[in-house]
Specification:
The protein is built from six helices and no strands. It has helices spanning 6-27, 32-42, 59-73, 78-89, 103-126, 136-157. It folds into two domains: 8-95, Helicase, Ruva Protein, domain 3, CATH 1.10.8.640; 97-126.
């Protein structure tokens, strides 16, 4: 019986270690800067209104980013940081507002619009008319026209 070579085992170990390192880089391994960025992505800039605090170049967004970092450094949880901004700006400051109160209608309207679009698409897709089969008479007409074309081409080629 052959024993696996040491090179094969070392190669497998190297691949596993490389995969763990890449996974750590991709997930960020919970670094505070990544946590701050994720929180900033959840907050809307009061100046730009359609941009997250993380993406906004405004002075207000810069100040909000600083507050997020200070809150994280103070040991606050994500929910506590978000609640700090909700207390100051209301639910409007959240990019994805919670499903309650006034925002519930927006969530229901969005879901209803998606459902209606999917239903219309499905109905149009299933109701497509299939092309009609040509009748025997149509096939005979096409065959006669092809025959005439062949005969005309054959007589044109002869000098």
């Amino acid at each position: 019986m052959r024993r696996p070579s040491v090179r094969w085992g070392s190669g497998l170990l190297l691949v596993v270690l490389l995969a763990v390192a890449v996974a750590g880089l991709v997930t960020g391994a919970g670094r505070p800067a990544d946590r701050a960025y994720e929180l900033e992505q959840r907050l809307r800039c009061p100046v730009c209104k359609s941009v997250s605090v993380a993406d906004s170049p405004s002075d207000t967004a810069q100040a909000m980013r600083q507050v997020v970092r200070e809150q994280i450094a103070a040991g606050r949880t994500d929910d506590q940081v978000i609640d700090h901004f909700r207390a100051r700006y209301g639910d409007w400051v959240l990019i994805d507002p919670p499903m309650s109160g006034r925002t519930l209608a927006l969530w229901i309207l969005s879901a209803a619009t998606i459902a209606a679009g999917a239903t219309l698409f499905t109905l149009r897709w299933t109701r497509r008319e299939k092309p009609a089969e040509p009748s025997t008479e149509d096939r005979e007409l096409v065959a006669a026209a092809l025959e005439q074309t062949r005969l005309r081409d054959a007589t044109e080629e002869q000098p």
